[in-house]
Amino acid sequence: MRALSVTTREPDAYRAGAELGAGLRDFQPEQVLLFSTIQYNGSPELLHGFFDSLGDEVPLLGGTGDGFYASTGAADWGAVAIGLHSEGKLRWQVSKATGLAAEPEGCTRSALQQAAAGLLPTLFLLFCDFRSDATRIERVIEREIKVPVVGGLAGDDNRIERCFQFCGREVLTDSAVALAIDGPLKYEIRIGNSIPAIGDTGQVDVASDTEIQRINGLSASDFIEQQTGKPILHSDRGVTTFTVIDADNPSVRRLRSIVQDRCERDGALRLYGGIEAGKRIQVCLARPSELVAEVQSLADELVDSGFTPAAAVIVSCAGRKWLLGADVEQEVQLLKARIDPNLPLAGFPSFGEIGPLKLDTGYSANLFHNMTYVLLMLGK
Fold first, then answer.
1. Which intervals hold domain FIST C-domain (predicted)?
2. Predicted structure pTM score
């Protein structure tokens, strides 16, 4: 496997795409992942410029985020593209399905099935519109897909208003886009979601879709205030998190973050992914130093494993970026410093993350996360 990552800060969508395409033209990629900031406003000119300049048709997958990650670091404006080349050893196939908000399960299933058509996938990448119930996306990837799925929810610049997904030459909304990879792919997946819990556990009494209304006889907002000692503020959005406790499988940890500080009805809270009534939860509060240490630990773990990477894809919660501020750069630089200063890399701050946990016995089922750092390393 070989890889090359290129970036642009060009404000014009067509010219930005053309810069990325020119940067990858001589590399002749077999597959491209492209992530951009929301400022291009879903203009199809970004992809038109890319393919016009690249001069070739290759499978392309990606979407928008609250910034992007590249080999050069973290950025708030522009786009990144990473080209992948397996010397013909791998087969790549991308697909899309629309109507995600109305039918999350069916749309997700369709995108993955179409991407896998005629292949025996080793790994999937999946990017989805955040304006859907991610728990219903999780049902499909957790219960039906037996190989790892890595990805996340596309987003915008913290306005929680819009996002776009990329598949081939198309710019989409309300969609799931998927890449299936078939062949002898070497990879490692690491998940950083070790934010410590505080206070007592509680049982979800009333919940509906992505809204949680009552916990331990209190409104969801009052329960958090009881456990943290302070009311929820707008600045807590995406940062204050619930960990969902699985008594039957304690090694599997899922985090769910708050979308907004307070819903209209009686202190209910809307989350990026739902939690079913009857589940036990605990409040988590992240600290910047803990997030940085988490990335360092993942990098150390990969070095100790002896894995030799050719490329990295990062999908990291936008809430981590909001909390880290300028130190969000560490989510890239710590990785490069420990593993390879010239590591080709691409990714984005997301509104929800997808990936399995690394366990002693292998990988867990595919899960949806919040406030989580998902790292996919593709091997040489």
1. 220-357
2. 0.93
